[in-house]
Amino acid sequence: MPWFPDMVAAVELARRQTRVAGRADPVAQYLTALSERDPSPLETTWPGEVAIYDPRAGEVRGRRPLRHFVRGNQSWLAGLQARTEIVATTTVGTRAVVELLAHLTRDGQDLTWPVAVVAESPDERSVVFRTYCSQWPLTGRHDVRPPVLQPGPADPGDVCGRYHAALAAGDTEQIVSTFGPDGYFREPSGPPYEHRGPRELRSLYTKFFSAGGGIGLQHCAVTDDGVRCVLEYNCVRWGRHDLPPQAGLGVYERGPDGLLTAARIYDDVQSPVAPEGSPAQA
After folding, report:
1. Residue 89 CB contacts under 8 Å (≥ 6 apart), including other chains
2. Please, what's the b/e burial string for 65-83 (b: 16 or more CB within 10 A of its CB; e: otherwise)?
3. How many whole angstroms separate alpha carbon 145 and alpha carbon 240?
4. DSSP-derived secondary structure for the chain
5. Alpha-carbon distance 176 to 162, whole Å?
6. Which tens digits make up the pLDDT trace of 23-79?
7. 113: closest CA among 89, 144, 91, 81?
8. What is the model's pLDDT at position 180?
9. Which distant-in-sequence residues (6+ apart) come within 8 Å of 73 by Cβ?
10. Which of 12, 63, 100, 269 has its Cα between 20 and 30 A from that of 45?
11. Which pLDDT score is estimated for 168?
């Protein structure tokens, strides 16, 4: 479920720095491929390789798997009456991150599902999509997702660095101090699980750290435009509990005062301090 219809913006941003002058705009070809459920224009625009890392389908590479995935994904979305809105876009160089809220209808019930998509163009001929989200809003359960990226020298700085140092240490007061007075933390399950202001944040992180300490993340890639810092990571520890490495993404938005106005998380990590099926995630 890479949310192709809304990744047009991501493709455009990822390509903006590398498009050859005079080359046909790939966005029109991309939209045509989607509307006709035909990936051929997409393959033409990116003749090298189109790679997809999807929470449901895993890794998709090659022309036949791509075609099967595009057609199956469109049918699946149509069944859920999906419509989406863009929350924020962060782009640096040839990498773009698009945050979405997908509004779905299933069995007559309206659902809101946060999804983050990373589009990265390693060269003029290829593109890679990495999608991050939780399955809990749809299925009521968390699915362990293996790493997408390997750990690397990707350490966020300033307030984002202080946030992650406090997260690893399990320091509630320090982590709350990185947020502005109206800052909020949104769990991967969406707007109903948003915690705003010092009192709610203190309560949340106290609960998070009650499993014997902080939350350990392997940092894999940082996309930082000066306002939003996006960290792709693998979660490997929660308090005293070692976890199988699980892929995730966090977006940390700064205010004019240099403090965090928002932290939005996209992963499917089950908290050991919450009952099975609970959305509590960090």
Report:
1. 9, 10, 13, 96, 97, 98, 99
2. ebbebbeebbeebeebebe
3. 20
4. ---GGGTHHHHHHHHHTTPPTTPPPHHHHHHHHHHTT--HHHHHHS-SEEEEEETTTEEE-SHHHHHHHHHHHHHHHHHTT-EEEEEEEEEETTEEEEEEEEEEEETTEEEEEEEEEEEEEEETTEEEEEEEE-SHHHHSS------SS---S----HHHHHHHHHHHHT-HHHHHTTEEEEEEEE-TT-GGGEEEHHHHHHHHHHHHGGGTS-EEEEEEEEEE-SSEEEEEEEEEEETTEEEEEEEEEEEEEE-TTSSEEEEEEEE-PPPTTS-TT-----
5. 11
6. 333 333 433 454 456 777 667 777 888 888 988 888 989 888 888 877 776 655 555
7. 81
8. 97
9. 1, 2, 4
10. 100
11. 97
CA angle at 268 for the pair 265 and 274, rounded to the nearest 5°: 95
Sequential DSSP letters for 49-73: EEEEEETTTEEE-SHHHHHHHHHHH
Report the C-alpha gap between 219 and 212 in whole angstroms. Answer: 21
- Taking only Cα atoms into account, the Rg of the chain, rounded to an integer number of angstroms, comes to 19
Q: Show the tokens assigned to 54.
A: 């999807």
CB 262 within 8 A of CB 183: yes
CA–CA dist 172, 213 (Å, integer): 10
Mean of pLDDT values over 148-152: 94
Tokens 């000066």 map to which residue?
226
Per the CB < 8 A criterion, the answer to whether 105 and 81 are in contact is yes
On whether the CB atoms of residues 274 and 134 are closer than 8 A, the answer is no
Q: What are phi and psi of 76, to 5 degrees?
A: -65, -45
Residue of 254 and 127 predicted with greater confidence: 254
Tokens 């308090």 belong to residue: 239
